[in-house]
Recover the amino acids of this structure.
């Protein structure tokens, strides 16, 4: 990433000074998200899609499906592929070319949040055991990066999955009839996983960082969880955490989870 | 938690597989080490600090720690395609983050410290073995460090927590299945790395943290003993 575009140290110092008094530049509390806006069906040709805005941050998540062969170790289960692209359109920081670490990690964190929670019932995506199964592609694109792409992508992924329909499949010709859909939805479990990220700046813990806050964040912990269970965690950045701090992060995530879930619940019906 | 839980390889729930730690396994490197948990074997080699090339990647404020995790194609039963994958890219970065807090990286502006980790034989917990080997290799290379780090994976098999999961346990399917939680701690108990895949309650995760903390103390002793055997350190 070009140094030119990172947040100057003097702003970082000010962010930390403010946080010591529990304040943020945009007047939010440390546990408060920016406004979340969700729109579904943003692409007619996708099996399912969602646009998620958190403040000025925006991502689009699309679901496509295809029929392929199962992996040898799961002959009766469908497959999942999650990729993320940080489009040069969405920030002067992103360049075209092969995916860099940030994009790879984003895709993998969202993939694990969905996969490990067993949200998709992969057994039901088997067409013929050992031969034909559905593959679900979750593709994430950044449209505008103003911090916290991770959580926007996580919210987008579950909403896009929730409104996706399975395309028609001609078993005789062995082709997917793209552009025509069945009434069937992707089989999903009732335990909806939501992945949310807690950041540590100075001594403060906070959620939903802006670009500037994210730049000066010392540690982030992304936790994918449903109502009762945690199913994925990733700690990012190189500062260390005391055990007590880690406990606090878990408790904080639990509180914010309930709040955010309430806000997006209507899109998950 | 029942202490009578039977592990297939006969280990107690808090028992780590036999560990092996050896320093100086790659004579060409500035520092190197081997670390193994049972059949999982990792070697790490450190080159540097040296001038960072290309020059535009130099950081005038502090040095760069560059980790590279790689599995040999024959280290697992189904051959893996040589070269980097999305998985190895992520583990490389995670390793860097796990090690960086203990390295006095600010002493080396414009320089890079390369850490190459290779997995010779895999039976789960490869990233943990890699981090343990890398920490030792960095110390062996004489890189100024505040502490060592030690890494271990805690598994949850159905409802039971176990220390240092092997491949069989990683693929556990009964009951609630397997949850894999790799941790890295500094010797003074600071968490520098955690990941989690599976299904666990918040309360049990907190238990796992304590188990990992205890286990990494044992690993630390093994790492330290191996480093003591090096002459001139």
């Amino acid at each position: 990433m070009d140094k030119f575009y990172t947040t100057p140290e003097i702003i970082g110092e000010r962010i930390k000074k403010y946080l010591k008094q529990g304040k943020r530049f945009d007047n939010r509390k440390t546990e408060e998200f920016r406004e979340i806006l969700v729109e579904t069906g943003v692409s007619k040709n996708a099996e399912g899609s969602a646009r998620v805005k958190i403040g000025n941050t925006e991502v689009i998540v699309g679901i496509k499906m295809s029929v392929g062969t199962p992996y040898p170790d799961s002959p009766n289960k469908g497959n999942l592929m999650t990729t993320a692209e940080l489009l040069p359109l969405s920030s002067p920081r992103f360049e075209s070319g092969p995916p860099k670490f940030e994009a790879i990690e984003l895709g993998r964190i969202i993939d694990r949040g969905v996969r490990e929670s067993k949200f998709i019932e992969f057994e039901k995506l088997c067409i013929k055991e050992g031969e034909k199964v559905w593959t679900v592609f979750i593709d994430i694109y950044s449209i505008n990066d103003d911090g916290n792409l991770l959580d926007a992508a996580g919210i987008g992924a579950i909403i896009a999955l929730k409104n996706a329909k399975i395309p028609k499949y001609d078993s005789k010709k062995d082709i997917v009839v793209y552009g025509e859909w069945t009434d069937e939805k992707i089989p999903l479990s009732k335990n909806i996983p939501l992945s949310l990220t807690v950041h540590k700046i100075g001594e403060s813990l906070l959620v939903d960082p802006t670009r500037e806050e994210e730049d000066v964040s010392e540690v982030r912990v992304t936790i994918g969880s449903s109502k009762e269970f945690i199913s994925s965690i990733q700690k990012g950045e190189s500062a260390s955490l005391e055990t007590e701090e880690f406990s606090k992060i878990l408790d904080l995530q639990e509180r914010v989870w309930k709040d955010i879930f309430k806000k997006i619940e209507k899109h998950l019906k | 938690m029942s202490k009578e839980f039977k592990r297939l390889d006969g280990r107690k729930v808090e028992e780590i597989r036999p560990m092996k730690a050896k320093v100086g396994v790659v004579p060409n490197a500035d520092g190197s080490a081997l670390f193994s948990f049972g059949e999982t074997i990792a070697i790490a080699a450190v080159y540097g600090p040296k001038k960072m090339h290309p020059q535009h990647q130099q950081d005038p404020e502090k040095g760069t720690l560059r980790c590279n995790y790689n599995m040999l194609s024959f280290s697992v039963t189904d051959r893996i395609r040589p070269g980097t994958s999305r998985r190895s890219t992520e583990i490389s970065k995670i390793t860097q983050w796990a090690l960086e807090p203990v390295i006095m990286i600010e002493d080396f502006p414009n320089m890079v410290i390369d850490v190459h980790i290779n997995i010779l034989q895999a039976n789960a917990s490869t990233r943990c073995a890699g981090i343990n080997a890398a920490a030792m290799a960095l110390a062996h290379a004489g890189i100024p460090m505040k502490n060592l780090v030690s890494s271990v994976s805690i598994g949850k098999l159905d409802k039971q927590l176990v220390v240092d999961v092997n491949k069989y346990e990683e693929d556990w399917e009964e009951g609630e299945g397997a949850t894999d939680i790799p941790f890295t701690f500094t010797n003074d108990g600071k968490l520098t790395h955690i990941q989690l895949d599976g299904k666990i309650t918040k309360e049990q995760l907190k238990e796992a943290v304590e188990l990992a903390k205890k286990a990494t103390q044992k690993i630390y002793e093994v790492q330290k003993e191996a480093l003591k055997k090096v002459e001139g350190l």
Notes: The interface with chain A takes residues 78, 86-87, 89-90, 93, 96-98, 100-101, 181, 186, 189-202, 205-206, 209-210, 213 of chain B (CB under 8 Å). The CA atoms of residues 157 and 169 of chain B lie 7 Å apart. The radius of gyration of chain B is 18 Å.
